[in-house]
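Predict fold of Ligand-binding protein SH3; 163 aa.
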Amino acid sequence: MTGINFVQWFVNFPPELATGIIAMLPIAELRGAIPAGLVMGLSWQQAAFYAVIGNLIPVVIIVYVIEPVSNFLRQRVPIFDRFFTWLFARTREKFYEKHAKWGDFALVVFVAIPLPVTGAWTGALASWLFGIAPKRALPLISIGVILAAIIVTALSVGVVSLF
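Predicted 3D structure, encoded as tokens:
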């Protein structure tokens, strides 16, 4: 039995598209997309640009559809009720103190920190859990994504230049 080689799969795409798709993934987001774009031959500007765009696409969808989708699934499928209960509790736990201290601006900081489980996907979910309206959440998350892109690009270019 052989596993799927995702790196090989992305080699078949233009690097701009591959970078954008990787940035859309919930675990990798732009933290994985920017280094991948650089490895695929994009300039740092291109890698950052396509990663930011790719990272923001699911955010727009999440911010506007999380409530109706979660309500629908929770009412009809018990395992989704347990999953969303766990996910919402985890997100509240990670974000509550920051939100209490910084208010809505905490969303920018939370998304900008280039660590696992602090990206745009979790920020979009946190915005809904803390009642931040989509029209306010999207600019805050966007600023956080751009700051994360600057940090990740600087670190990636610095690391790449060492080799």
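Residues 34 and 44 are 8 Å apart (CA to CA).
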